[in-house]
Amino acid sequence: MSLPNEIEIRVLDARLNDWGLPRYQTALAAGLDLIACLDAPLTLEPQAPAVLIPSGLALHMNAEGLCAMVLPRSGLGHKKGLVLGNGVGLIDADYTAQLYISAWNRNPAGSGSALTVQPGERIAQLVFVPVLRPALRVVEQFSAGSARGAGGFGSTGV
Ligand SMILES: O=c1ccn([C@H]2C[C@H](O)[C@@H](COP(=O)(O)OP(=O)(O)OP(=O)(O)O)O2)c(=O)[nH]1
To answer: Which residues line ligand 1 (CB under 6 A)?
Structure first.
């Protein structure tokens, strides 16, 4: 199956029509910004448990070999400390329910760096990514070929 160049989305929260549907911000931007569909400002205390924020959107990739990833926005993550509670969000091609953003304030506990997310704020980004889904074949020994064997976690130096 070839990868689609168009994907169906459903707007589950009509406020997105005013706040702005996800769009590529520049000609070559890879990510589509996701908006916090909140009813009121949400304050995240440093290191407090992550909060699931509705995106107001559902999408249906409906294609083998495709997924989407929810990533932090660089500026928010680096400068303010607003990142994702799940590191990266993986959206499966057959998932059609509302997409959620796990928002987490990574600032040190006790730093006083509480973050407030405003309704309609762009808090994360969505990137479509092609994926391979090879079958797994169980073997006793790996077949000959270039093999690294042991060595990892900084074995070549850090
Ligand atoms: O940041 C995220 C991550 C996931 N999802 C949705 C889409 C995804 O397809 C589904 C399941 O995600 P995943 O497979 O990563 O979660 P899981 O914890 O393994 O749950 P499941 O058993 O439902 O697969 O949840 C989101 O809305 N936002």
So the answer is: 70, 86, 89-92, 95, 99-100, 102
